[in-house]
Please model this.
Amino acid sequence: MTVDELAGRLRLTANAVRNQLVKLEESNLVGRVGHRPGISKPSLVYGITLEGQIQFSTIYVPVLTQFLRTAEEECSSDELSGFMSETGKALAKRYTKPTGTVRARTNAAARLIKTLGGLPEVRSRDGSVVIQSLGCPLSALTSENAAACRILEGLITEYVGAQAHTCCVRHPVPRCCFQIDSDQKRTRA
Model:
């Protein structure tokens, strides 16, 4: 759609629409997809980008929730847990692994969880390092499907290079908690 078409549909001024389009373009949610002949000069045509389609879609959570329900019915608990953990480990490979002590790598994992939508803090507990969060980036899934916590457990295990154990709270509001074995004090390469 052109700026004028959007302005007409939204009952806004063309300048107001242009200001919002600039912000949406900067966020890669919309982009320029062509030109259309105008009265004095061609008008730019804007469309939703793939990133925008992903961000604005509301079908992901229902599909994934139903998928997990079906998987819980069809798989053994061990199979499902293993599948979820391996999914998290595969996700971790998308990110550059941190170096340093277990504590330093756990702090890096907490920063990663924050970028994914969590609100993590790193603490010490009984000789281990613990990531606790006031929320869960997968709360729409974990509130109904405990196995979804294993995805983040696998991600943290792979990313930190030390075994993470789930200690999440799922009710009434999902909150992440992962205890990381800290007996490995060496620096990762």
In short: The beta strands are 30-36, 43-48, 120-125, 128-133, 164-166, 177-180.
